[in-house]
Every structure is written in structure tokens, then in C-alpha cells.
Specification:
With 170 residues, the protein is of the alpha+beta class. The protein is built from 4 helices and 7 strands.
Length: 170
Amino acid sequence: MDSKTTIYRKTDENYQLKMKASRVLFSDIDKKFANMPFTLRTLDNEQKARMGVVECVKHKLLEPYSILYDKDNELIAQFKFTVLLMPSGSHKITGLSTFDPSICESEYSIDKDESLKSILAKGLTNKTAKKKKKSKSSSTTATTNDAGDSSNVAAAATSEKDGSSSNNNK
């Protein structure tokens, strides 16, 4: 099973290409695909593209995607989903809603490794408590008395100095 890959992705490397076919190919890729993967079939001249891609891969301007093979008469399961990584935690937005492990059988088990069990028990969500910011008011601070009323400490202090009470204003 010796197949040649036809899917590539542009990297961030810089190199001055020597062959004209390589330069034309690389500028085509830069215009059409930017950093997205592409196949050689989508290019205008596939023969010149195959010739130019050799120099680009040699100098690491393009990264080839390897071809994956599976064993004959083996079952393959593939689960895909999309996760948003947010400061409040991760959110699964596409894919299967639940995974039922009873429908799959495996010869491997993680029952013996306690560290793996503890990691899997944590789950995907990251719950962090938000810290409250302290206000920067320097002269007036609010307090609550036993009755549950908010009163201004600075105003109470000035009324006590004057000898008057805020409740005795008639």
C-alpha cells in the first residue's frame, strides 16, 4: 500500500524557491487556499503542480497529510464533535449528544490506573468562581446595620461630631 499523498497545507516557513514551477504553484496556493488544506486536483495544471510540490515539501513550505489505512476485516469507529473553549469552560456544540459505551467492546481497560480514572471523572467543564472587584471609593463606605438598612458611615461620623443625629431632624 504505497500511495502518494495529494493533500497538503501551507506552513509559515519562508524559502526562496528555485524552480519556476514551484514558485507558480506556491503563489497559486497562497492566493486560493491561504492556510487551508488543499488537494492537487483543485489546481489548474496537476502535472506542473506535482513537479513544484516536491521542492515545496523538501523545504517545508508545504506539509503533506499522511494517508491512514485500516486493517482488513476490522471494524472502525470514528466520533467527531466540535468544542468551543471558553473562559467559563468548554461547550460541545456539534456531534453525538451522548456516547453509549455498551455498544462498543474493547480488549483494553483503564480500570487499574487510578490517575486516569480521576482525570476522566472530572469531565470537560471547567467551573471557576468569578472574583468580585472591590470598588475604589476611599471616603464613603456602605455598611449594613442589624435592621438590614444601608447607612453611610462617613455621614454618621460627621453627624456624631456635630452632636446631631440624622434621626432627630424635624
